[in-house]
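Hi R.,

Here's the chain you asked about this morning:
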Amino acid sequence: MSNYKSFETERLILRPTSEQDAAFILELVNTPKWIQYVGDRNVKTVESARAYIETKMLPQLKRLGYGNYTLIRKTDHCKVGTCGLYDREGFEGVDIGFSLLPEYERKGYAYEAASKLKDVAFNELGLEDLSAMTTKDHFASQNLLKKLGMEITGTTKLPDEDVELLFFQVKK
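And here is the predicted structure, written out as tokens:
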């Protein structure tokens, strides 16, 4: 993973998620909010978490040089969540997403990480716009996206999904 760029904020290291994060990803994707707002990914063991990383996260990183980042707190090297820039199949453009373990929510980590990746998207990757999607009842996510300067421009559905999502965008 050393071939790929990591980023830092005041309190966090954003390191590309790798197989070494399998136990952490297992915990994250099985939190109640992940299951409610993202969906059950049927990741129930460390081995299935490793496979999830290998098949769902690493291909984009290898293809584009960016993707999903594990958020590591600088003070104690604790993994607190993930944030990423995603080029989703069947979806035009790049979107930003974030998720934290429950005990690290409401501390500003998601905003700090997403703000950094928004800056990277526009100033290092040369993207002209960035999007995001969230459920209509995930108000914390909506508020964070608005704080990032994003505006609701409509609704969308991901391929093979039935849930209508709010669609946010921001231009460079």
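One quick note: The chain has a mean pLDDT of 95.

Cheers,
M.
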